[in-house]
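ARCHIVE CARD
CATEGORY: sequence design from structure
SOURCE FIELD: tokenized fold
FIELD CONTENT:
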């Protein structure tokens, strides 16, 4: 068999070691890539996220009507492209005729996206589809199961993916209307659990730490706004995440978040050279 497209690099080796350590340094995830300047979820957004020192790039996956996984957040392509229509009723040929607004590029396929990210940054796939087969096939074809985690608020989607690729890393979604055991049923080991201020109660935080697992939460919105405004209480806002055991933070401001975490005394994953 041919060797997988994407092999391990020193950068990925360091990140995967930290990712696997539930007590390791805080890791930063760029929400929809680095999109302060680039189009969100584009190949250029990967470059921006890497340059900003992010450890993960969070991105969103749909599947075309004829089975090609591609990157797009919304249920329609209207906001981000020069076209219109439901994101999952488009064929691959129709997708390739679209252009991301402000660019001359089409929305990237998952394969293009991962080929551009491989060896440079870890990838969090936020599933906007329950058609896991085509997505898992791309990960396996590229040899990138060790550089990607799959997230869905519906654990059944993650269980379906794990049935196809038992070694796939998954991130489950903690809620207030289901137990942690029910959410994680059949998925152990779960390397990361996604929580929020409502679900990350002291008891839930303790249970996740005991698994042991990392805890992912968002700085999106209020915390990011305080960072961007250089608010004097930025460290206090971040401390509220640390009090909930958070070790992975998703942000629209990856470079700024890294600087503030360091200034506020957090241990953070090593930045790329």
């Amino acid at each position: 068999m041919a060797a997988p497209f994407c092999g391990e690099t020193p950068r990925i080796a360091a990140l995967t070691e930290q990712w696997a350590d539930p007590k390791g340094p805080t890791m930063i995830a760029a929400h929809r890539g680095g999109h302060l300047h680039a189009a969100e979820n584009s190949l250029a957004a990967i470059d921006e996220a890497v340059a900003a020192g992010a450890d993960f790039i969070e991105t969103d996956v749909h599947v075309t009507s004829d089975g090609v996984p591609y990157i797009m957040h919304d249920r329609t392509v209207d906001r981000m492209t020069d076209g219109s229509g439901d994101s999952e009723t488009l064929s691959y040929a129709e997708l390739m005729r679209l252009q991301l607004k402000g660019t001359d590029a089409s929305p990237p396929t998952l394969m293009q996206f991962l080929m551009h990210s491989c060896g440079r940054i870890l990838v969090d796939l936020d599933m906007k589809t329950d058609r896991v087969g085509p997505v898992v096939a791309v990960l396996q074809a590229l040899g990138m199961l060790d550089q990607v985690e799959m997230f869905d608020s519906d654990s059944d989607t993650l269980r379906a993916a794990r049935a196809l690729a038992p070694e796939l890393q998954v991130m489950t979604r903690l809620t207030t209307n289901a137990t942690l055991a029910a959410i994680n049923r059949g998925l152990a080991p779960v390397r990361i659990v996604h929580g929020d201020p409502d679900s990350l109660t002291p008891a839930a935080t303790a249970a996740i730490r005991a698994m042991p697992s990392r805890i992912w939460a968002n700085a999106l919105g209020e915390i990011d706004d305080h960072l961007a405004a250089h608010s004097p209480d930025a460290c206090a806002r971040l401390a509220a995440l640390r009090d909930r055991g958070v070790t992975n933070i998703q942000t629209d401001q990856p470079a700024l978040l890294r600087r503030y975490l360091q200034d506020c005394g957090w241990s953070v994953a090593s930045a790329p050279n």
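CARD ANNOTATION: DSSP finds eleven helices and nine strands in the chain. The longest helix spans residues 132-142.
SHELF: design records, drawer C
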